[in-house]
Amino acid sequence: MRAAQQLADAAATPRQARKYAWTDVTPEHLNPSMLRRMVHGDRILVADMQLQDGFVVPLHHHDNEQVTMVKSGVIRFRLGAERTQIIDVHPGEVLIIPSSVPHEAEMIGDVEEMDIFTPLREDWLSGTDDYLRG
Fold first, then answer.
1. Would the pTM of this model clear 0.90, i.e. be above it?
2. Where do the domains of the chain lie, and which CATH numbers do they carry?
3. Closest to 79 measured CA to CA, from 93, 94, 100
């Protein structure tokens, strides 16, 4: 009974909001063509990224739902195991990729974009995102 009460008390405790400035978040250079800054809450991760023209994020999939918002440049997504669905995402546009959908992304021009994932991208937080490092 005590454990159940502790869980109820924790759930009722007000959570603290956290404010970040991207300029204060340490950038991570995953490879010569990709710079990433990340912040996260308990169940969501936000990444601000800069990618160079021609860089390709290889075909992969994950359990996380992904929202990609392009600020500059164009990202050409190829979706599906055979990469047959092609979607170009331009500045001011947003693409939502459902959980477990295979996708690859090619940068057309230098790209600035933001990705949001839920649940958290544990591989990004732990540094086990080998498909991006090189």
1. no
2. 22-132 (2.60.120.10)
3. 100
